[in-house]
Amino acid sequence: MKLSTRGRYGLRAMVDLVVNSKETNISLKSISQRQGISMNYLEQIISVLKKSGYVKSVRGAKGGYSLAKSPKDISVGDILRALEGDLNPVDCALVNEEKQCDEADCCITKIVWKKISDSINDVVNNISLQDLVEGHNDL
Amino acid sequence: MKLSTRGRYGLRAMVDLVVNSKETNISLKSISQRQGISMNYLEQIISVLKKSGYVKSVRGAKGGYSLAKSPKDISVGDILRALEGDLNPVDCALVNEEKQCDEADCCITKIVWKKISDSINDVVNNISLQDLVEGHNDL
DNA sequence: TTTAAATCCTAGTATTCTACTAGGAATTGA
DNA sequence: TCAATTCCTAGTAGAATACTAGGATTTAAA
Questions:
Q1: Digit-coded pLDDT (tens) for B58-88
Q2: Tens digit of pLDDT for each residue in B1-12?
Q3: Span A113-139, mean pLDDT?
Q4: Disulfide check for A127: which of A76, A101, A133, B54 has CB 3.0–4.6 Å away?
Q5: CB of A108 closer than 8 Å to CB of B127
């Protein structure tokens, strides 16, 4: 029940982009140095965030990355779901459906998985990158 | 961000013990057949639950397992934590402390991990085995 | 006393997943 | 032209998962 480094690194990279948003193009090299994350690995992660529409890039010399939206319009949930997949604790196709499923795995215990999933998503959907960077402790 | 089969199978086995609690000793064989889980694997899982004090056993012929406590005194959280370890989304020793940590991983993003952890634990601590079996949909 | 049914215990293992590394191709400002 | 940068894909060591296997011990019942 752990997040992988993808989600953790990805969120840190996004925070880094917010914090350094006075620069226009922020190079992967600088992010990787500040965050202590391998450049090649971070590249794969940020590439997913780009495809998901949270980051934009400029190629070539003096190129780099920047946020594709305002930090208040990107939630932690957006980032984690892009990198980790859905945040459900089990893979039950019907976890969000009313109807019963045949899988022994679901049904009796399904309500538990759904409540966990809902609570996680509720938390991460209600924290924006802006909230994080401004450091509201009363989030 | 998935639970392993240990947590899922373990919870199902515990529910099975509640549902079949009219029997005195419930054999692993019968649980494994009802739940469709390999007996040898289930044995390893139930052994952890026994060591954690949620299940008791009787050896020998006519032996088997039963709950060590009332189903209303065992929460889903007890079971999942016994089998999955803490339910924190990251391994940050200081995630529950007030003070700052040096790890780049924590600190700015720490509040996210703590809120996820708290919300998961809040959900699973407030569902007992009895609640599950009685099927309250308004848990 | 024997036997069968059951828990107890530990070692091994195939497969999958994670967390990278590596390196070349394409783009672009200077 | 060239250096800096993003883009793209393949490979891979190590760890974790999800088991399988099988023997030792205990006990009720024949």
A1: 999 999 999 999 999 999 999 999 999 999 9
A2: 999 999 999 999
A3: 90
A4: A76
A5: no
**Is B9's CB less than 7 Å from nucleic acid strand C?**
no
Find, among A62, A52, A49, A60, the residue nearest to A15 by Cα.
Answer: A49
Rounded Cα distance between A51 and A43, Å, is: 12
- Specify the amino acid at residue B94: L
Q: Output the average pLDDT for chain B.
A: 90
User: Does A101 reach chain B within 8 Å, measured CB to CB?
Assistant: no
Task: Say what the pLDDT of residue A107 is.
Answer: 73
Q: Is the pLDDT of residue A108 over 90?
A: no
How is residue B26 annotated by DSSP?
B
> Is any atom of nucleic acid chain D found less than 7 Å from the CB of residue A104?
no
Pairing of strands A55-58, A64-67: antiparallel
Residue of chain A with shortest Cα separation from B105: A8
Whole-angstrom distance, CA of residue A76 vs CA of residue A8: 11
User: Encoding tokens for residue A133?
Assistant: 């960077």
User: Taking the C1' atom of C19, which residue's CA lies nearest?
Assistant: A5
Report CA A39 to chain centroid distance, whole Å: 18
C1’ D24 / CA A102, Å: 39
Q: How far is CA B81 from CA A111, A116, B52, in A?
A: 18, 14, 10
Assess whether B57 (CB) lies less than 7 A from strand C. yes
Closest listed residue to residue B77, CA positions, set B139, B122, B136, B13: B122
Measured in degrees and rounded to the nearest 5, phi and psi for residue B117 equal -60, -45
Cα–Cα distance measured from residue B80 to residue B93, given in angstroms and rounded to the nearest whole number? 20
